[in-house]
TrEMBL record:
The gene is hemC. Binds 1 dipyrromethane group covalently. This is Porphobilinogen deaminase. It comes from Nonomuraea terrae. The lineage of its organism: Bacteria, Bacillati, Actinomycetota, Actinomycetes, Streptosporangiales. Monomer. PROSITE patterns: PORPHOBILINOGEN_DEAM (PS00533).
Amino acid sequence: MTSPLRLGTRRSLMATTQSQMVADAYTRRTGRAVELVGVTTFGDVTKAHLAQLGGTGVFVSALRDKLIDDEVDFAVHSLKDLPTKQDPRFTLAALPARHDHRDALVGSCKFADLPPGARVGTGSPRRVAMLSALRPDLEYVAIRGNADTRIGKVASGELDAVVLASAGLARIGRGGEIAQIFETEELLPAPGQGALAVECRADRPDLIEFLSVLDDPATRSAVTAERAVLAALEAGCAAPVGAFAVDDGHTLNLTAVVVSIDGREAVRKSAAGSPSEAANLGRLLAAEMIAEGADRLMGEHSH
Ligand SMILES: NCc1[nH]cc(CCC(=O)O)c1CC(=O)O
């Protein structure tokens, strides 16, 4: 009998839920058992504001340490938390079919119905910038902590609403509290939002082959283009950059935006191309955006 695969996961509800989803999908497809191994990460224990931690990857490195130490076989990350520069010791063996890519408002009314001066919580400069463009009359409050903590600030009355990723809310069973989902025309999601990444060591070709049953090619081309924009802009997860692509099986349609943090200026562009040229499409779009001043808009939030 084959031994179970060991899946390293952060201990938060969102992480264990998404890890369990991937574990179940793998077992369904292959018949092989997967056991979850809980790992505590720096990103879970630190009190520092995420945007001040010097970029991406705080949730990722502890899981990668366990891969290197051979304590786990693979890990599942939220793709949007993964640095665009891939560490050569690891491979994204599968990018499963993406869940909802959009952002959602949790609160007692829709965004347009919030009274002037209402306090809206979000830790993301991207969301602050784009929401400020729609409603400059609201107060945007930097918040941190897991989704549960953030939603709690609405229940306690400290905030009128919070904005979180729809996919994450669904994963922790709080999708029912969503007052509104933002369409991409008004709030373009973070590159890779809603997608998971299945990662293992690059020196385990057999395992990469096993895990590849979970890969969804249309998701892979879409998020490859989105992440290529982010990489070419030399922006990190804290930059006010949105990107979203759809691969319909023939054509890859990509839209990206960079917004000044006050929401007053934006460079937004779209492009279409072949899914097999996803990375190029993203790079070219980013170059056009830079030519129109995108890097100036990012200011201190680049890198
Ligand atoms: N930045 C933290 C983070 N990383 C992934 C998700 C949620 C879901 C996803 O995009 O897969 C969240 C929470 C959020 O942004 O609301």
